[in-house]
Amino acid sequence: MSSVYWWRSGLLTLFNRSSSLLFNLLGFVLLVRYILSTHEYGIWTLYFTVTSLVEVSRNGLIKNALIKNLVQADSNEVYGQVFSASLLINFVFILSCYLVLLLGSPLLVDVWGAHQLTEMFMWYGVSALGLILFSQLEFLQQANMRFEGVMLATFTRNGTFFLVVVSLMLWTPGDILLKLVWGQALSIFLGLAVSAIFAKRFIKGKLVLKKNKVKELFHFGKYTLATNLTTVIYKDTDQMMIGAMISPSAVAIYNAAIKINSFAQVPSMAMAEIAFPKSVESGHSKGTSAQKYMYEKSVGVVLAILFPVVIGVLLFPKFIINTIAGPEYLAAAVVLQLTILYIPFIPFSRQFGVIIESIGKPKINSSIELGSAVLNLVLNYFFILSFGIMGAVYATLIARLLKLIIQSLVLKKMIRVDILNAFTYMFAFYREIPQLLGRIPGKVSK
Questions:
Q1: Cα maximum dimension of the chain
Q2: CA distances from 61 to 42, 58, 364 (A)
Q3: How far apart are CA 256 and CA 77, in angstroms?
Q4: Are 376 and 397 in contact (CB under 8 A)?
Q5: Per-residue pLDDT tens digits for 190-248
Q6: Which is more confident, 414 or 282?
Q7: 281 Cβ contact list (under 8 Å, min separation 6)
Q8: What share of the chain is helix, strand, coil (3-state, %, to 5)?
Q9: How far apart are the first and last CA of the chain?
Q10: Contact, 56 vs 231, CB < 8 A?
Q11: Cα 374 from Cα 352, distance rounded (Å)
Q12: Which of 261, 224, 230 is nearest to 375 (CA)?
């Protein structure tokens, strides 16, 4: 593996995730402190949860199947066929999801008691259309191991939406929630324009549809679709059930803690984006020993970054909530303190998916995610009935711990992974920080 690749792509992807973190954090602060009431923020959270379900599912169906097949394409003709098949699947999937969303919105409005969602979901169609091409071009660049365009497009998208939030803080006539949806669409299309500039050189061969390629990509992607779908349901079950069983305002309180925790996941997401195409390449040429090393090393590095954050949140939850969200959300402090405990589980789970899918076993990942999602759903129902908002925290913590144990056993059997080695690499990372910092200028200049 080229160290230049890891440094270059790592810095670009980390900048991408860090800028997204900054824009999302500032936008979150403005929304909860100056623009939306707790009830309105709860509705925005529910809207964002549902639309994220669509986007994450689509990414599962398209992303890894497209990257894997483009990396392994042996001619421009095959390359063009793969891209064309992926684009068709992308379009059909998003159109189908949008129609289901429109038809199902009355039910969601009734369950959550939020009439604003009907029009918000209707206008989401504009964003969904832009995201078809935005996602396709992003994955195309990642398959070619180029991250500059991805970084600038994401920066443009997030920066534009942040400016929309600022404008709503200064001038807020009419339906604020609907204007947020419009701003979301505007930011996507501006990001798409930037992405197209960088991605056009990677479109090779003729765009020709081949039935066998459509079937091949779909059958690979369907397992990752199931994985991502169950993962996001697993991740958001608590918020959706709190909305149905308690209220949108309770969702706002709970989400304030979850939102802050999500900022700690940036290193794990960045590492997964870098690792997948390289894992496919390494597995192709060096076998399972390279993938074992990649899993243990990447998890260890992410843990090294996460642990100081976890300790800080455990010690100062009220200060963090009050500083970021304001005194109206102080009830979220205990939620924040407990949910931060399962953040260290996330890099193990995320890199498990990267490795398992890179060696062509997505069905295993999807089966584990499905089982975990069902368990989480059942636990959340009974625990929320018994303990209210805190029941969602207890249920999710138990479900994540059990999933980690199962994933560790699977990796140990398949590629002899020892998760304790991740902690060895974590402490090694701390020891290497002075040398790593000293070598950054030389690596970046190459």
A1: 60
A2: 29, 5, 15
A3: 49
A4: no
A5: 999 999 999 988 888 788 888 999 999 998 888 778 777 777 777 788 898 999 889 88
A6: 414
A7: 71
A8: 90, 0, 10
A9: 15
A10: yes
A11: 19
A12: 230
Residues in contact with 41: Cβ distance below 8 Å, sequence separation at least 6, in sequence order: 31, 32, 252, 255
Instruction: Give pairs for 412-417: CB < 8 Å, separation 24+.
Output: 414/288, 414/356, 414/359, 414/361, 415/288, 415/289, 415/291, 415/292, 415/295, 415/355, 415/359, 416/288, 416/292, 417/292, 417/295, 417/296
Confirm if 360 and 71 have CB atoms less than 8 A apart: no
Measure the CA–CA gap between 344 and 356, rounded to whole angstroms. Answer: 20
pLDDT of residue 276: 44
**CA–CA distance, 118 with 102 (Å, rounded to integer):** 8
Cα dihedral 42, 103, 65, 237 in deg (nearest 10): 30
CA–CA distance, 77 with 73 (Å, rounded to integer):
9
Residue appearing with tokens 């900048």: 15
The beta-strand segments (E) located in 66-132 are none
The encoded tokens of residue 233 equal 């349901």
Q: How far apart are CA 242 and CA 248, in angstroms?
A: 8
Q: What span, in angstroms and rounded, lies between the C-alpha atoms of 319 and 313?
A: 9
With beta carbons less than 8 A apart as the criterion, state whether 44 and 181 touch. no
Q: Is 362 left (phi over 0), alpha (psi -120 to 50) or beta?
A: alpha
What does the alpha-carbon distance between residue 30 and residue 377 come to, in Å, rounded to a whole number? 32
Supply the pTM of this predicted model. 0.78
Tally of CA atoms within 13 A in the half-sphere of 300 that contains its CB = 22
Please state at what angle helix 211-245 crosses helix 248-263, rounded to 10 degrees.
120
Tens of pLDDT, residues 95-110: 999 999 999 999 999 9
CA 226 to chain CA centroid, Å, is: 15
Residue 270: closest CA among 302, 226, 307: 302
3-state secondary structure at position 66: helix
